[in-house]
Amino acid sequence: MLHDDQNSLFTIAANFIQYTSRPVFLTGRAGTGKTTFLKYIQANTHKQVAVIAPTGVAAINAGGATIHSFFQLPFTPYIPESKGFQQTAGIDRHHLLGRIKMNGDRRKVLQQLELLIIDEISMVRCDVLDAIDVVLRHFRNRYSEPFGGVQLLFIGDMFQLPPVVQEDEWRILAPHYRSPFFFDSHVLMNEEPVHIELNKIYRQNEQQFIDLLNKVRNNEMDEEGFHLLNSRFNADFQPSKDAGYITLTTHNYKADAINADQLNKLSSAVVNYKAVITGEFYEKSYPADELLQLKEGAQVMMIKNDPEKKYFNGKIGVVTRLETESVFVQCKDDPAAIELRKEKWENIRYTLNASTQRVEEEVIGSFEQFPLRLAWAITIHKSQGLTFEKAIIDAGAAFASGQVYVALSRCTTLGGIVLKSRITGNGMRNDERIVQFSRQKEAAAQLNYALNESKRVYQSSVLTSVFDIDAIFKAVSVFEKFVTEEIKYFNEEVLTWLATLQERLDHIAGVLDKFKPQLQALLNEPYIPEQHEALQGRLMAASKYFAEQLQVADRYLAGSVAVTDSKQKAMVYNLLLHDVHVALSQAVHTTKGLEEGFNAASFAMHRKGFRVTQLRVNAYAVANNKTQQKTETPHPALFQQLRLLRDKIVSQKNVPVYLVASGDTLHELSTYLPQTLEELAQITGFGKAKIESYGQQFIELINAYAAERNLTSCIHEKPVVKKEKKETKPAGEKTDTKLESYKLYKAGKSIAEIAQERNLAAGTIETHLAYYIEQGELSVNELVSTEKIVLIEPVVRNMENNASAPVKQQLGDQVTYGEIKFVIASLNHLKNKEKQQL
């Protein structure tokens, strides 16, 4: 994607994002190219990037996710100081992190993230930014760095839509924040962003109109400005049918009424176009009408930019022909009608590609509809980002503070504006805190100086990270912990093998500890690293040595000696060993990027080219056909014969090991020597079905072994496991079964574990927990992810009763019955709470 290379501020901003780690606030008046900049960075950055926005529609338009779904944030105000034992509203850091259910994939995305773009930042509340900071520091394990070391790009115009803050929310936040705006968050007090304002206006080119917009924006309106603005007042103005005017109004119902009235006046037939919605796509995120009703002669507006530039977002025209797959729209000054077909908007989530270790977008839902909207009227809120040549502005007496600028700046010329009501000073003053903040933008000369210094700091940070192998030791630590805790399932040799791996890595770490001070001394010199000749030579030598050493350690993994006949333990072992391989091979690849010296752009491209190779190691005993000795059995030779028989049956039947006989079962067989099928039934793991299928083969083998050595059965020596009798309660005393489930859940057990322990169905346990959600004793966020909640809630609200089946039928496999049950209980709790307050 190309950008205007004559726009120096655009280029400076792009360089800050590409070549530094400084947070950036990119702003600018309407029509200065903020959206273009966002798309440019998305298409061209070498960094691991995610885009988020405060609302569903903004997220879809930006090609990202919502803030709350990406970070799993609750909607409760966040309090930046600990509440201790105070029972005040809002949540502090401890309770915030306790509420977030971050699965492994989401953690990995956060850990790999390098650049986070927040679009429409004017709508983001201060405490939300502090909550994002807390989550990133925690899940990236980088507690001393703002946003956990992630670079932030804030995009938006503070003179447009402000954050929505209810009175009760501000009462909670006011003791902790100077204002609800993002720039007054605590994290930005310690890490002020580079403030860049794009000033090349692409939407307007009339200097008189541009000067007027600047006066409105900066609270500098004078008598001359008001006179010029109100010269466009005409309360009785009625546009001709084909004039192409759109009315900007303050409320949805006003815009809907105007559109419906004008549509009804047309004598042509209505044609309905139903959107095609697939996967997950939340109703509040719909970028167009789900049911689009059009007539020939209807005035419409395009709501997308055409790649071929036949139309743009906000272009107005008249429908001339309606077909099943096409809508034809004639726009003024265009020689022919434009043919429009359905466009697709995608709902995405961010995932980590296991092969490349890159953050990628995964499409989880789509919305297909004609990119059109009836355009006799639109709300000022929905007009944000659009461009109009002719507009009737119906401000009214209730016009919100600061919204005059939003409405006026949609238009390309002053002559294209008609005011239905006069504009006075009372209705158009912008928040002075925003005006003061906007004056903090840096001049181009200051930005260039800051850019050079930030490049030096960023390059130093990148080079320091190349020689940081903490990720390898962390992966090894998790792997080692698993092996040592589960060693009874593995052969003892694996511990010796693991110790050797640790020794090799400790040696590398020891050499690195001597190298790092030398590297830091060179980085402290007043040169940009890529221009530092002495540093370049040292980096090339270090790259060669450490890449070789790390590669040797990585190759060592392929010689894993671990063996287990537990398929489950083998699976975990294989996965954790693969994690070590990923960390090592990524370090090898990164270090090799310095073999020919360091250039920031080239190194970034090299790092982006990482691919994980497959580690061909399998600890599963049958799969790799290795021998596992069980030295504690009195008859190891019999144990081996039994194992070979077990493996033969597994191979013939093509079934998992545990479905025939586990290692523990073989151990019992070789210890107690059962010699009849009746005695075999006393061996752990041998039930009626197994005895019928395989029992005789095992008995014949044991009997042959016993006969050769004159051995008899020892089954009488096998300890008898006594079943504990359940305590009986006195007559008339009943157990509160819901409370029992609730206690077990609060003790940290999962629903499946509770169901197994209580010998009840999982659905029954879900019903018990739903009861406590409805009572307000449990939070629905503990049991259901935010994405699922926002998916289920609107469907439940549209149902006449609390039945789960219709909701499941509508949402399908996206949700479970239990999740529906929990959300219904949460909504019932809110309804009961509202009734009590009436």
Plain-language structure description:
By secondary structure, the chain is of the alpha/beta class. The chain has five domains: 8-201, 3-Layer(aba) Sandwich (Rossmann fold); 207-437, no CATH class; 457-621, no CATH class; 629-717, DNA polymerase, domain 1, CATH 1.10.150; 737-837, Arc Repressor Mutant, subunit A (Orthogonal Bundle). 46% of the residues lie in helices and 11% in strands. The chain contains 32 helices and 20 strands. The protein has a six-stranded parallel beta sheet with strand order 3-2-4-5-1-6. A hairpin with a 6-residue loop joins strand 15 (343-352) and strand 16 (359-369). Helix 17 (470-485) packs antiparallel against helix 18, helix 19 runs antiparallel to helix 20 (567-592) and helix 23 (636-653) runs antiparallel to helix 26. The longest helix has 31 residues, at 493-523. The protein is globular and about 115 Å long. The two termini are 56 Å apart. 35% of the residues are buried.
